[in-house]
Amino acid sequence: MGFGVLLLLAATATVTLARAGDRASVPATGDGRRTSYAAGTDERPRPSAYPRAGTGDFVTAPGESPVRGTDGPLLHYRVAVEQGTGQDVDSFAVAVDEVLGDPRSWIASEELRLRRVAEADDADFTVYLATPDTSERMCAEGGLSTEGYTSCRLPGQVIVNLARWLEAVPDYGAPLAIYRAYVVNHEVGHELGEVHQACPGPGEPAPVMQQQTYGLDGCAANAWPYVDGSRYDGEVVPGT
């Protein structure tokens, strides 16, 4: 075998070995999920738990809920889920209804009543469940930057980020159901005119208007504006 042939075989072997150590990326699927796997192994691609993007169109929960609360003005809300999220609008509506109708929620003030409706013309605000990309775009229309991570509220729009709804946040220290109740009460609280509050002190419950998604600052996770039958607050965070 000639010297030139030996050089060619050696070069080919080097390229083959280099490629075997690469990470191969599977292109995004139609719903925005991405997967990756190590080339040359038997590891299967594992999709994300949620799509980054949906269709941008929303389906509204049908029907109405009972009136929640004992006194005060009656506000009406709708519930809508983005298509392409894999989430059932009726199930999301039930979850929102249970949070807002809980005796520890905003109706405990006895100065507010709430009822879910189906028609946009009848609603004072809408609670949306949206993918990270769609929620970021919706929030940005009101001048809010969420980086596709947090939920937000704009006038008449409570926008819940699908990723947070499904995964909460790292080190939250409470079950997912508690975070879900928190995010609904927090963003609806903004719709009701509430502003951000600070942790009162280490080990104390976090006020529901604390930005718990960004960290608890030593407080314990808390989903409710009323604790032990009384309104629970922290100091107002200036400028929020």
Mind sketching the topology for me?
Layout: H1 3-20, E1 23-26, E2 35-38, E3 58-60, E4 74-82, H2 89-100, E5 113-116, E6 125-130, H3 132-140, E7 152-154, E8 157-161, H4 162-167, H5 176-191, E9 226-227, E10 230-231
Parallel strand pairs: 4-5, 4-6, 6-8
Antiparallel strand pairs: 1-2, 3-4, 7-8, 9-10
Organism: Micromonospora echinofusca
Domain DUF3152: 48-218
Region (Disordered): 23-66
What structural category do the secondary elements indicate?
Answer: alpha/beta
CATH architecture, by name, is: 3-Layer(aba) Sandwich
Mean pLDDT: 84
Q: How much strand content do the residues show?
A: 15-25%
Total beta strands: 10
Span from first to last CA? 78 Å
What about the largest sheet?
Answer: 6 strands, mixed
Gross morphology: globular
The fold-level CATH name is: Collagenase (Catalytic Domain)
H/E element sequence: HEEEEHEEHEEHHEE
Q: How many domains comprise the coordinates? A: 1
Oligomer: single chain
Low-confidence stretches: 1-47
Helix content: 25-40%
CATH hierarchy class name: Alpha Beta
SS field, number of helical segments = 5
Q: Which radius of gyration do the C-alpha atoms yield?
A: 24 Å
How would you describe this protein?
The chain is α/β, with parallel strands linked by helices. It has one domain (58-231): 3-Layer(aba) Sandwich (Collagenase (Catalytic Domain)). It has five helices and ten strands. It has helices at residues 3-20, 89-100, 132-140, 162-167, 176-191; strands at 23-26, 35-38, 58-60, 74-82, 113-116, 125-130, 152-154, 157-161, 226-227, 230-231. The strands form three sheets. Strands 3, 4, 5, 6, 7 and 8 form a six-stranded mixed sheet that branches. It has a two-stranded antiparallel ribbon with strand order 1-2. It has a two-stranded antiparallel sheet with strand order 9-10. Helix 2 (89-100) links the parallel strand 4 and strand 5. The longest helix has 18 residues, at 3-20. The protein starts with a helix and ends in a 9-residue tail after the last strand.
